[in-house]
């Protein structure tokens, strides 16, 4: 599925990294159908797929990380409860939520900046997470919006 409404924002992020939109990668999780697009040059190193099929992880040589995944909502979180839980784990400096989605960002305990978007569908929570050292704020801050907005979660 093509997300043409995201093309201008993703093209800007890619241009900042010296890539063309044709070099964007779209990952679709084979187990849950969670998908998101990202500039492959920004996260060139793919980790091996986890055995449970929850999602994928990509890394950059400079310490940035991208995680696209889904998980069973075993604790029956709604967006407000999920944001409250994240506040117990990380230093959240921004949060926003709606009826079936939430966004949180801030600082991880290791000092890295993080930005996470969640979509609630049925008994699953789909997510995209971007984490990077504060020294890399400029290039990665420009990628956060386009990558996060490319997150798709199929009905289940």
UniProtKB/TrEMBL annotation:
Q: Which UniProt keywords apply?
A: Signal
- Outline the segment boundaries, as ranges, of region: Disordered: 38-57
Q: Does the keyword Signal apply?
A: yes
This protein's source sits in the domain of life called Bacteria
The secretion signal range is 1-24
The name this protein carries in UniProt is Uncharacterized protein
Q: Which organism is it from?
A: Aureimonas jatrophae
